Amino acid sequence: MNAQEIVTVLEEKFASKITGKNLDAIDPWFSVEPAALADVALFCRDDARLRFDSLQCISGVDYLEPDPKKVKKAGFDPHLEVLYHLFSFPHRHKILLKVILPRWKDDQPGEIPDLPSVARVWPTADWHEREVYDLSGVNFVGHPHLTRILCCEDWVGHPLRKDYEFPEEYHGIRAK
Amino acid sequence: MATITLDDPTVIEFDVRTDEMLVNMGPQHPSTHGVLRLLLRTDGEVVKEITPHIGYLHRCAEKIGENLAPYQWIPYTDRMDYLAGMNMNLGWSLAVEKLCKMEIPERAQIIRVIIAEMGRLASHLVGMGAYGLDLGTFSPFLYAFREREKILDLFEEVCGARLTYSYITIGGATHDLPEGWVEHCRDFLDYFEPKIEEYHTLLTRNAIFINRTANLGVLPAGMAIAYGCSGPVLRGSGVNFDLRRDQPYSMYDKFKFEVCCPIDPQGREAWPEMPNEVKIGDNWCRFYVRMLEVIQSIKLVRQALDRYPNSQGTQRSSGWKATMKLPRGEVYLETECPRGQMGFLVIGKDDPIPLRARARSSCFSNLSVAGELCRSCLIADVPAIIGSLDVVMGEIDR
């Protein structure tokens, strides 16, 4: 199936839960409501026409222009995107599933936003979600063991946030 | 008062009863391939559960990538999978070129195929040698490094570096192949090809080696896909899939080669030479896929060397500039690296610096299945299973 057909199948099933799409992009994508993610993911994996049995990658992307002079030119409002690159071995087709989140939960800086976990749909998401949590700061609700994976357990902050402040020192080791 | 004698079976039971114990393996354990730490919950010699702890080599390369132009990030990709730096350079370059819609000259593409396949040879040689070490045999390691040294000499002739090359770059490669290199490369292949049979004698058909690897760490195809495994780990489980054939990039569709897998594309068993003890998806299969891929890589390099002298264009696209702006949009591209499918995501913001540079590590996913593979195996088999996944920590931790 091509991207158009894939998104049509999903629109028939989920209609209003699909919040956006761009099928002319280099990697065609569609986006879903955060709350509907787990249902959409399960459908993508199990529907006979889609069979997205492989989750290639989960990436967190922080859309924020930290330089106040460049904000006008940036061309996007501050938000957080989580990208799921899906691939189907039986059908050999792929699609990009996006979820758009606020940067902070309830606009409270420091409170990371929630997103349903898909670790039960694709086991590979277990480690990938831990990585996105660790580096980009997304709270995956329902993840069996959401702990930092690359940074140390006592690390503060999420380094891939654009407004992340580098620590001055760590356990007596000076960083600057 | 009852007297306790040694004949009482309950006493003996108490005496030899084993407690669960936590064993820490690594991060400096020689057979964990770099700084990997495994936490084993064991009952006697039997492993109940293993938990990999990673991140000891984390440099947050992705954060650095958000602050550099794509060509400046090339040296950082070298340091991800430092045993296959050339293949890492290629993956990132291809993703950026796709975003910029850049045409690559034929000559550059052929150079890339030659270099990437030589990189695969070097990497699989380390994989093979180090796996021997894991299982307690030292000599294959020495032979493997002897051959790899010659590949590194060839790479040094090309770009001056022996480990972190930064040779393949945005738009093509930094230099053309030096004069006489093609002949040197052919000489090496002629020298190396007959040696492969020796490795089969040393390891592949060695009875001790088969006993240590066959029917151990069996990874079913469905589980391999669900855990996102790729490369030799996926093919060893009988999934006949290789990006070079199935989603060709960089002219791979112009060359003839076979995908090495115990199951052929028609679903039949493809390896009549497989020992009886071996089960599809076990350690031995993963090892053997790598051994066969070496032969296919030699084939590919030979074909590319033949095409090289008559190829059109230069070694680098003239469309490339250091100040080149990355258009808005996102590209995710995977390439078939020696250890699996390495993916790079690049997001442009109409600026020379990308908004996001993401590296999807193949070993990261391959290692995540280790917890399943090592359930109720023996402690001594843990290095055999982890070794067969052929992980490189630099790539996992980035």
Radius of gyration of chain A: 18 Å
User: Biggest protein-protein interface?
Assistant: A-B, 36 and 38 residues
The number of helices of chain B is 17
Q: What string gives the helices and strands of chain A in order?
A: HEEHEHEEEHEEE
Number of helices of chain A: 4
Q: What global shape of chain A is seen?
A: globular
Listing every helix as H and every strand as E from the N terminus to the C terminus, the arrangement of chain B reads HEEEHHHHHEEHHHHHHHEEEHHHH
In the CATH hierarchy, what is the superfamily of chain A? Answer: NADH:ubiquinone oxidoreductase Nqo5 subunit
Q: The CATH topology of the domain at 69-322 in chain B, please?
A: Cytochrome-c3 Hydrogenase, chain B
CATH class of chain A: Alpha Beta
- In CATH terms, what is the architecture of chain A? 2-Layer Sandwich
Estimate the strand proportion of chain B. 5-15%
Major beta sheet summary of chain A: 5 strands, mixed
Mean pLDDT of chain B: 88
The whole-number mean of residue pLDDT values of chain A reads 88
Which segments of chain B are poorly predicted (pLDDT under 50) over 5 or more consecutive residues? none
Helix percentage of chain A: 10-25%
Beta-strand residue percentage of chain A: 25-35%
Number of strands of chain B: 8
